[in-house]
Design brief:
The protein has 369 residues and is mainly β. The protein contains 1 helix and 32 strands. It has one domain (21-367): 7 Propeller (Methylamine Dehydrogenase, Chain H). The protein has one helix spanning 2-17; strands at 46-52, 62-64, 67-71, 76-81, 86-91, 101-103, 106-110, 115-120, 126-131, 141-145, 148-154, 159-163, 170-175, 185-187, 190-193, 199-204, 210-215, 225-227, 230-234, 239-244, 249-255, 268-270, 273-277, 282-287, 293-298, 308-310, 313-317, 322-327, 333-338, 348-350, 353-357, 362-367. The strands form 8 sheets. The protein has a 4-stranded antiparallel beta sheet with strand order 1-32-31-30, with no helix packed on it. It has a 4-stranded antiparallel beta sheet with strand order 2-3-4-5, with no helix packed on it. The protein is globular and about 50 Å long. It starts with a helix and ends with a strand.
Length: 369
């Protein structure tokens, strides 16, 4: 009986974190935004199917319950089966750049008019909406803490919002000093996010009160990844930093003073390593303890899509349309595929398949044919 209870506890813990091989609920896989999938990468990459739309994708796809959700720049949100069949669509008055998030039976997505929508995952029916005073550029995140689910997202009106995911009721809001670009990362009852004010804000998930505020840079374009009391983030000036949240200090910082090209993509964390893509065309693997470069790989074009880690491998995509699978320990290229269209959206990896939304307006499913 004791073993059964332990099994159920561990199973529920996995479900809450989103870390199961058939579910990629937000664009980084979990609330801490670690960019790690429990699914394996395919041993071969070929196009299994393509779903075509009338506009480009900048928003990353998410997948749960055998349903792919992806938003286009023309304001259409699509739900697509794992066989590439359209299930439903929802039309907003404005375009989408922010990725959607799936939580249970809900889909949450924010548009460029500043409206956050809650839709039924099954039907696409609008259940409620919440209006802000600025565009929404980052993915919403649902975090469970003390038996309570809290939906959080940032806006260009400078506020980070926390809502009840069932009703859309405002729980609290926290004001920063400039635009909020990325998604909030959540761990240990805290929410961490950056923005155009150059600070990393650490606030309480329950009441939105400020715990810590660490100056990082002039402009944080992406999202942070969290582990223990550390946050890892890149900035628009081409610096990548490890921030000790407990002591409010920069533990280490890396930069190439000859380039200073932006880190737009969010990092991925695994096995003592942090992997980040840069607009200087390189994918970097840093030692999490001291920031030394373990390896770097020239992808051939700028990297705006965030990397995804599975076991000892890392998946990256670039703006030339290349998909690359590299060895996490050495940076050696293991597999590549030339899609031929710019990819700024992060791939979703579920059940041995790679789901890619490209800027040519096509959604691709790649894997072993």
């Amino acid at each position: 009986m004791k073993q059964f209870v332990i099994f159920i506890f561990l199973f529920l813990s996995v479900i809450v974190s989103g870390q199961i091989k058939t579910c990629w609920p937000n664009f980084r896989g979990d609330a801490a935004l670690t960019g790690v999938t429990q699914s394996t990468f395919p041993e071969e990459m070929g196009v299994i199917w393509t779903f075509s739309t009338e506009d480009q994708f900048k928003s990353s796809p998410v997948v749960c319950r055998k349903t792919i959700v992806v938003a286009a720049m023309d304001g259409t949100l699509y739900a697509i089966s794992m066989k590439g069949e359209k299930l439903w669509s929802f039309k907003s008055e404005s375009g989408f750049e922010a990725p959607a998030t799936i939580h249970g039976a809900y889909v949450f997505v924010g548009d460029l008019n500043g409206t956050l929508f809650c839709l039924s995952l099954k039907t696409g029916e609008e259940l409620w909406q919440f209006k802000t005073d600025g565009q929404i550029m980052g993915s919403p995140v649902v975090y469970s803490w003390q038996n309570k689910d809290i939906l959080m997202f940032g806006s260009y009106d400078y506020f980070l919002y926390a809502l009840d995911p069932d009703s859309g009721k405002l729980l609290w809001k926290y004001e920063s000093d400039n635009y909020i670009n990325g998604a909030p990362a959540c761990l240990n009852g805290e929410v961490v996010f950056g923005g155009c004010d150059g600070f990393l804000h650490v606030i309480s998930v329950l009441d939105g009160k400020l715990n810590e505020k660490v100056e990082v840079a002039t402009y944080v374009a992406g999202s942070s990844a969290l582990e223990n009391k550390m946050a890892y983030t890149g900035d628009y000036d081409g610096r990548f930093s490890a921030i000790d949240l407990e002591h409010k200090t920069i533990k280490w910082r890396w930069e190439d003073v000859n380039k200073n090209l932006a880190f737009i993509a969010s990092p991925a964390l695994s096995d003592g390593k942090v992997v980040a893509g840069c607009r200087d065309k390189f994918l970097y693997c840093f030692d999490k303890s001291d920031g030394s470069v373990i390896w770097k790989y020239n992808t051939g074009s700028r990297v705006d899509a965030s990397p995804v880690i599975s076991g000892s491998k890392v998946l990256a995509a670039n703006m030339r349309g290349d998909l690359l699978i590299l060895d996490l320990n050495t940076g050696k290229k293991l597999l590549s595929y030339e899609l031929g269209s710019a990819i700024s959206a992060t791939p979703a990896v579920v059940d041995g398949k790679i789901i890619i939304a490209a800027e040519d307006g096509n959604l691709y499913c790649l894997g072993e044919q």
